[in-house]
Amino acid sequence: MPPIDLPVEGTTARDEPVRLRALVDGEERPDASSPWDDWGIFDLPPGSDPEHGRAMVEVAGPTGWQPVGDLSWHGVLYGPNLASRGVSIGIALRADARGRGIGAVAQGLLAAALHRAGVHRVEASTDVANTAEQRALERAGFHREGVLRGAQVRADGRHDLVLYACLPGEATAR
Ligand SMILES: CC(C)(COP(=O)(O)OP(=O)(O)OC[C@H]1O[C@@H](n2cnc3c(N)ncnc32)[C@H](O)[C@@H]1OP(=O)(O)O)[C@@H](O)C(=O)NCCC(=O)NCCS
Asked: Looking at the predicted structure, is the pLDDT value of residue 159 above 80?
């Protein structure tokens, strides 16, 4: 995975400052659980996850930057060479930070940082019913590419996902 330069900062449409920063070793994630991450089954052998990165999403508060969620990313291969490697990103915000435009800015900032680090294709996928994430990705500059049928299993069964991607120059926050 290419190292990306953090921190990066942006602003929501309501002028709320948003920052992505590297996680400190051992730091706890904010509680950003939602109906979309009720996995039920954890049966991958330890160490078999793809190599991944994580960043904290923060907003400016009266006492400085406050963590409101986190982003993660991992490589996806479309061929046996580095130029065919894309990066898939994911996000979860605390319930009180949703609906404020932070998700669009954070994902746009991460896509732009990955592009600067040399990644061409930044992907994100989300449940076909997760309209908030689909709108956030579109506002971040991602393009809808198609449906990944039956791609994800959660506690309540198998689900279709929508695949989005953002190529260099397309991210709306940078
Ligand atoms: C999905 C998520 C990252 C989106 O970030 P966000 O900052 O809340 O999104 P925004 O405030 O930018 O809203 C995006 C759009 O979705 C709309 N929206 C928000 N909540 C919605 C809901 N429950 N139903 C339908 N639309 C919704 C907003 O009105 C906005 O639409 P607009 O662009 O037309 O104004 C955030 O809500 C979240 O963390 N949710 C829980 C975890 C999750 O779903 N992660 C993604 C899993 S793949």
From this structure: yes
- Residues near 17 by beta carbon (within 8 Å), at least 6 away in sequence: 9, 10, 11, 59, 60
**What ligand 1 atom has the least distance to the C-alpha of 100?**
11
Domain membership flag for residue 2 = no
Taking CA atoms only, the protein residue closest to ligand 1 atom 3 is 103
Arithmetic mean of pLDDT, 2-28? 94
Pocket of ligand 1 (CB under 6 A): 32, 34, 36, 69, 90-93, 98-104, 126, 130-133, 135-136, 139
Q: Which atom of ligand 1 is nearest to the CA of 125?
A: 48
**pTM summary value:** 0.94
The Å distance, Cα 103 to ligand 1 centre, comes to: 7
14-29 b/e (C-beta count within 10 Å ≥ 16 → b): eeeebbbeebeeeeee
Q: What percentage of residues in the chain have a pLDDT greater than 70?
A: 99
The CA angle 160-152-28, to the nearest 5 degrees, is: 125
- Per the structure, how many domains does the chain have? 1
Q: What is the CATH number of the domain that holds 109?
A: 3.40.630.30
